[in-house]
Design a protein that fits this description.
8-stranded antiparallel beta sheet, alpha+beta, 183 residues, globular
């Protein structure tokens, strides 16, 4: 009897701790990541967004949203707890320095109503990046991350990650496992 109980508990622990490795197509890119979560969610990818920066750099953007299927849109900000945005540039003169990424993080967080935050340098997908963390007026901790990746066909890709998931395990797992590559 004791052996059966231990076996059942072991199986429950395995199922609770297992996470789904996601592989998603975003335009000409494959994005893979693992949230290490048991929460139910779906993935929505937007149509291409064609844009131009103030300095004249043209890009194509793709947005991926995770949607919490246990909540309704009006329930809470946590209905869409994370997103990944790719900006693909054929040729850009944009500043890709850490200081520039920190400034971009500040803009991203202030757009969410977060004016007090801290930034940290971090390697993301093998590239130098920056994360910023702050709390909004409702007490939600919001994380924004930026890094640049040079893909073979497309010269530069800016990857932006936004998360309202807790740091451990979901957001940390996302940052450790994200990988962007050309199809």
């Amino acid at each position: 009897m004791r052996a059966i109980t231990i076996l059942i508990l072991s199986l429950l622990l395995i199922s609770v701790s297992s996470a789904k490795h996601e592989v998603v197509t975003m335009g000409p890119c494959r994005v893979s990541f693992d949230l290490n979560t048991t929460q139910k969610y779906t993935i929505n990818v937007s149509k291409p967004d064609y844009g131009e920066t103030y300095s004249g750099d043209k890009y194509v953007g793709y947005d991926l949203w995770l949607v919490n299927t246990d909540l309704r849109p009006e329930d809470t900000r946590l209905y869409q707890p994370a997103s990944i945005y790719l900006s693909l540039f054929n040729n850009t003169t944009m500043d890709k320095s850490i200081e520039s990424m920190k400034s971009s993080i500040g803009d991203d967080l202030s757009n969410q109503g977060i004016y007090s935050y801290e930034t940290h340098n971090r390697i993301i997908d093998g590239q130098p990046g920056v994360i910023g963390v702050g709390e909004d007026s409702n007490g939600y901790t919001f994380l924004a991350a930026n890094y640049w990746s040079t893909l073979t066909d497309l010269r530069d890709t800016k990857i932006q990650i936004f998360s309202l998931y807790p740091w451990k395990p979901e957001t940390l797992s996302l940052l450790k496992t994200i990988h962007v590559e050309l199809l």
